[in-house]
Amino acid sequence: MEFSPERLDRFARQIVIPEVGGAGQFTLAQAHVALVGLGGIGSPALQYLTGAGIGRLTLIDDGKVELGNLHRQTIYSERDIGHGKVVAASRWLANFDHKLTLTLHDRRIDAESAPGMIAGADLVLDGTDTFATRLAVADACVAEGVPLLSAAVGRFQGQVGAFAGHLPDQACYRCYVGDAFDADDCDTCAEDGMLGAMAGWAGTLAALQAVRLLVAPAMGEPQWSTLHLLDGLAPSMRSFRVAKDPGCRTCGAAGEDVS
After folding, report:
1. CA–CA separation, 34 vs 91, rounded Å?
2. In 3-state terms, what secondary structure has residue 117?
3. Is 48 helix (H, G, I), strand (E, B) or coil?
4. The model scores a pTM over 0.90
5. Could you count the other beta carbons within 10 Å of the beta carbon of residue 241?
6. List of residues 6+ apart from 182 with CB closer than 8 A
7. Sheet holding 123-126, edge to edge
8. Is 74 within 8 Å of 80 (Cβ atoms)?
9. pLDDT in tens, 94-150
10. Do the Cβ atoms of 5 and 166 come closer than 8 Å?
11. Contact criterion met (CB below 8 Å) for 2 and 26
12. 3: buried, middle or exposed (CB in 10 Å: 19+, 13-18, 0-12)?
């Protein structure tokens, strides 16, 4: 693939980085990322994914823009209030980079719809705010053989983890949280509160991890099954590895077809 002079100029400062280069930029241009949730995490992640040159995006969110979103959901403005987030996000993208390929889903993702929505993606980035949705997405990623970046934030705490539960030696997201959170009744940022800059930190770290995974190993190891915990009050970050659960009903022996 040859980049036009315009595209070369657009990504010049990234292409000159040895760990990216022309080959890495080509990989990003061909990559397909499914972004689940266009809120506090999804908004900054979307900005930096497109800024990096990701060529194809699937956007998934059934919500509408509200006034209370604006302090952390950075792609929206007051004129977007009342409009669907997917529609508003696509308008932002059209103004930012008209060469992107987009697939839009403005309906709720669940266990039934998730496999079809993420099919064909090279990577899924999940920034939703309920465990039931996260687990539905995570289970679909394992079933479809798609790597997952899971990002979450609340108040002054955030986390970003990379999971490849479809690989025999790697944990999935369910290995981390277990089965207790399948019910859609857990706290969200509406109850707990959120500092806007924390959402930005988690979203931009998730975007960075996405770029790293897509051009790996040029930018280091993928760090599968590794969770990065962000503390905005310290501020600091620490990481730990999630062990694969042999009894996990999604990726372990408990989920295998023994018929």
Report:
1. 17
2. helix
3. helix
4. yes
5. 12
6. 131, 132, 135
7. 101-105, 56-60, 32-36, 123-126, 148-154, 157-163, 226-231, 236-241
8. no
9. 999 999 999 999 999 999 999 999 999 999 999 998 999 999 999 999 999 999 999
10. no
11. no
12. middle
